[in-house]
Every structure is written in structure tokens, then in C-alpha cells.
Amino acid sequence: MRLALAALVLPLAVATPARAELVKQTDAGFAVQHSVTVSTDPEATFAMLRTPAKWWDKDHSWTGNAENLYMDSQAGGCFCELIPNEATTESGVPQRTLRGSVQHMQIVYVDPGRLLRLTGALGPLQSEAVNGSLTFTLKPVKGGTRVVMDYVVGGFSRTGFGDIAPAVDTVMVAQLSRLGMALGPLVGAGDSPEAEPEKPIKTVTEASASEPSPNAPEDQPSGSMRALVTDLAPDETLSEGSSDAGKVESEPRVL
Questions:
Q1: 50: pLDDT strictly greater than 90
Q2: Could you tell me which residues belong to the region Disordered (predicted)?
């Protein structure tokens, strides 16, 4: 997972988070916080958030292909990456089998439309005796949603946190910017105060006479390696991201 800073210039220019800060750094760890305001409601924002194949940078994956990323929907689930089998049959058709997998993080708290929390050490931190807590907090604002991301890392690292903390900070703000691009940034949002969506007041008679909301459409098979994993229900009503195929690299890249 290399740190491809040149490739991050355009995403940062298009959807720069409203707040970006390396909050704290010590010999024992560090904390970063970023936020971005998007033009979608909290439910649609959450649906995209838990579909990393549509916004996570492929250059910060282990296989070099974002389509291999997936996230389960419940606590105890996995933010993982499939390592596909590159072998083919005699007719030249790729074998849809699984060679391996990588766990990026584990889901510990899910409140759809409001909060998602995961624990784990991303990228090169995985090989050190450290752990991290990554929290996405979704707050409704006028015209969209404010997404606040906090990543707190602590433990023992053989190389120390002096150099890695700023690098992680750069990558995390870029990932959040890509999420903002996928959803559509809310132009001119700035640091406007949060506003809860207005809810019409119904009388008892009106409430009882109202029709139930239609069920959301069922997810369609993606046709990718993600179909090998059960309990993977990405929101296919959102636009698919790019799917540049990539081979597994011999050396891991940064985040």
C-alpha cells in the first residue's frame, strides 16, 4: 500500500474536508480528526460509507483493486479485502475462487445513518503491536450530512509514531475526500450549524391513515469476488466506482 501523494491532489482539490487536524501525537500514539459535508441525507451517506469498493482508494489496498473490498453490516463483522485466485480454466475463463483475504478492521458499533465504529490497525500498522479506533459520525445539516472521522491509534511501534502519524493523517483525509466526491460535496457548507431535518406533525388520524413506505429494492449480485462473501449487502442503487483490476503486489503498500 504505497503512499501515492501525487494521485491525491485532484481529490483533495475537489472535496477538501471542512476540518482537518492531527489532533494529538505522543510516543504512545496519535489521533487525527477530519470532516466533510456532503449533499446526501444521512441514510444514503451511510449506505455509501459501508460500501468501500465504491470510494476507497485502490492504491491503498493490498490487491490494488478496490472491487475486492467489502464491509459487513453488523457489529462483529469485517472490513475486509478478498485476495482472488488468478488461475484460469483450460478455456481461459477466470476461476471464481478465493485464494486469501485480509482484515483491515472489525466493526464494533453500527447505528445506520448516525455512527459507524471500527477497530484495527490499517496498512503497515498491522504488523506492529498497535490498535486503532476509527469512528464515523454522521450529523444532518441543511442540505446534506456532515461526516466527522476520528482515528485514534495507540500501542508500540518499532519505528515510532513520529513519521507514520503525519503519513496516516494524509491518507485518511484523502480517503474521506474520496467519500465526499462519491456522494457529492455540499458546496458552500463551510462550518454552518447543524440542523435537524424538519418533521411534519401528524394527528393520530393522519398517522393511522398513512400508507407504509415501500420496501427498498433488493441488492443485486455484483458479479465480482465480493459475491463469494455472505452477509455482504452493498447498496447497489448507488453508482459504482471505478474497477481498475490489479494483481497482488509482492510488497505491501502504505494504508
A1: yes
A2: 188-255
Specify the pTM. 0.68
42-62 residues labelled b (16+ CB within 10 A) or e (exposed): bebbbbbbbbbbbbbbbbbbb
pLDDT value of position 92? 66
Helix or strand or coil: residue 123? helix
Q: How confident is the model at residue 185 (pLDDT cuts 50, 70, 90)?
A: very high
Q: Can you read off the three cell numbers belonging to residue 111?
A: 447505528
* C-alpha triplet 5, 53, 68: angle, nearest 5°: 100
133 vs 191: which has the higher pLDDT: 133
- For the chain, the average pLDDT equals 75
Cα–Cα dist 57/91, whole Å? 33
Give the chain's domains with CATH numbers: 20-57+71-77+104-190 (3.30.530.20)
Contact 117, 131 (CB under 8 A): no
H or E segment to which residue 98 belongs: strand 98-111
**AA letter at 8:** L
- How many CA within 13 A on the CB side of residue 37? 17
Instruction: Read off the pLDDT of each residue in 172-200 and give the average, rounded to a whole number.
Output: 74
232-240, long-range: CB < 8 A, 24+ apart: 232/70, 232/71, 232/72, 233/73, 234/50, 234/51, 234/53, 234/54, 234/70, 235/47, 235/48, 235/50, 235/51, 237/47, 238/44, 238/47, 238/48, 238/51, 238/54, 238/182, 239/54, 239/182, 240/54
